[in-house]
Amino acid sequence: MSRHPQLAILGFGTMGQAISAGLVEASGYPAGRIHAATRHPAAAQGRAEALGIALSNDANAAVRRAEVVLLCVKPKELKGLLAGLAAAGALEHRPLVVSIAAGTTLDFLAAHTPEGTPLVRAMPNTPCSIRRGMTVLAAGQGVTEAQLGQARTLFEPLGRVMDLDERHMDAVTGLSASGPAFMFVILEALAEGGVQCGLPRAVAVELAAQMTLGAASMVLETGRHPAALKDDVTTPAGCTIAGLLALEDGRIRSVVARGIERATQVAAGLG
Ligand SMILES: NC(=O)C1=CN([C@@H]2O[C@H](COP(=O)(O)OP(=O)(O)OC[C@H]3O[C@@H](n4cnc5c(N)ncnc54)[C@H](OP(=O)(O)O)[C@@H]3O)[C@@H](O)[C@H]2O)C=CC1
Ligand SMILES: O=C(O)[C@@H]1CCC=N1
């Protein structure tokens, strides 16, 4: 299979568009090799045209010519979509099927696709649209290393990729897939703190975002524990420890951790 297989993207909403944008705009995937399908294409036609990819309401046609099928519909919409593909015989050539649906297991996918369909579950996030994504992959039974590699090749240009056992997928969803929303709220709060202390809002947002990027990059690039990096910032009797204690008074650690736990619990029930 080529490095840029014929790709069908079913569902062209937030994630279908984020992945398409990452592939075409940021990583040079040939737009002509991507065919997206959605039930109401008019709404997203402008975005598809801007990317140069074909968008129609004919999922069966997109799948018939595809070597890789990326399922980007809501979990509740997946069963009907797969039933339609099966009824039309669109998966008879056994393309690699990659689902990003939260809470939707490989067993469910296997039960709703023709026997022997190679299946991979993936959990990306919206930063994939600018190549700063995090995607976790879990391979279905019988998927070869080459097929898993094909899925990896698809997501690697969009950011980091990690393989994990499927049992971790709900926690992955709660942490790295829902996580951007949590970080946007935290970023907004950081900026509000700056505004409260007199910074213009645009300046506060830029400082908050660049600081967050720098802190996250230090964790990834140094491999040091976040607690050790925090200690480096915290001068005895200085301002940082004063701020940290105020955050602890608000139970920042348990509030954030419980948010991930709750998102994980809900993700498990979405399929
Ligand atoms: N949003 C996120 O940050 C993340 C989402 N996910 C997962 O990605 C999937 C998509 O989420 P998201 O992009 O946010 O959802 P959206 O609702 O934005 O997009 C889903 C799209 O699927 C289309 N659709 C629905 N049914 C069909 C069908 N039968 N055939 C073709 N297209 C169809 C809908 O459009 P139309 O009505 O025109 O058909 C819609 O645009 C979900 O399963 C979610 O769990 C995973 C990681 C992160
Ligand atoms: O909120 C959701 O259900 C989806 C899955 C992970 C991110 N967004």
Which percent band covers the strand fraction?
5-15%
Class derived from helix and strand content: alpha/beta
DSSP E strands, number: 8
Bound molecules: NADPH dihydro-nicotinamide-adenine-dinucleotide phosphate, (2S)-3,4-dihydro-2H-pyrrole-2-carboxylic acid
In total, the number of domains comes to 2
The helicity comes to: 40-55%
Question: Mind summarizing the main beta sheet?
Answer: 8 strands, mixed
Query: What's the mean pLDDT score?
Result: 96
Low-pLDDT residue spans: none
Give the spatial strand order of the biggest sheet: 3-2-1-4-5-6-7-8
Gyration radius (Cα, Å) is 21 Å
CATH superfamily of the largest domain: NAD(P)-binding Rossmann-like Domain
Sum up the overall morphology in one term.
elongated
